[in-house]
């Protein structure tokens, strides 16, 4: 039950607190920030990050395609950590927490109370 609580809280907060504002906001501003990191095709990679946070967070929360969704969200947090590498620790802390949780979920899986487990039981 503990893994389910962590998965739901972190998945929903990533999706609704970070992915949704990017999805409904000004993508050109976020893409400009991605361009400053040196990424080619910054609009494409801005959309990838947005979908990793929003869709990946939702998938982690419900426990569907959990491992790949958590891995993609975790990779996005690695980039966020790189973005904040020169900032005080307080600015890096949230990305580090999301990275740790998403990496753990990618390694452990969704647990018994998830859609992944329900699909596995039917197969």
From TrEMBL:
Keyword Transmembrane: yes
Transmembrane segments: 54-82, 94-115
Keywords for this protein: Cell membrane, Membrane, Transmembrane, Transmembrane helix
Coiled-coil intervals, chain numbering: none
Protein localization: Cell membrane
Keyword Transmembrane helix: yes
Highest rank taxon of the organism: Bacteria
Subcellular location, principal: membrane
Membership in a protein family: Belongs to the DoxX family.
The protein's name in its UniProt record: DoxD-like family protein
UniProt xrefs under InterPro entries: DoxX, DoxX-like_oxidoreductase
Species: Pseudomyxococcus hansupus
Gene Ontology CC: one annotated term: plasma membrane
Membrane topology: Multi-pass membrane protein
């Amino acid at each position: 039950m503990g893994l389910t609580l962590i998965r739901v809280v972190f998945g929903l907060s990533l999706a609704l607190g970070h992915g949704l504002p990017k999805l409904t906001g000004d993508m050109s501003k976020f893409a400009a920030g991605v361009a400053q990191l040196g990424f080619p095709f910054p609009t494409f990679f801005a959309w990838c990050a947005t979908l990793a946070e929003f869709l990946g967070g939702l998938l982690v929360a419900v426990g569907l395609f959990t491992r790949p969704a958590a891995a993609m969200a975790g990779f996005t947090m690695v980039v966020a950590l790189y973005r904040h590498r020169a900032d005080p620790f307080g600015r890096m802390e949230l990305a580090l927490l999301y990275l740790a949780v998403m990496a753990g979920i990618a390694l452990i899986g969704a647990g018994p109370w998830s859609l992944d487990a329900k699909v596995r039981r039917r197969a």
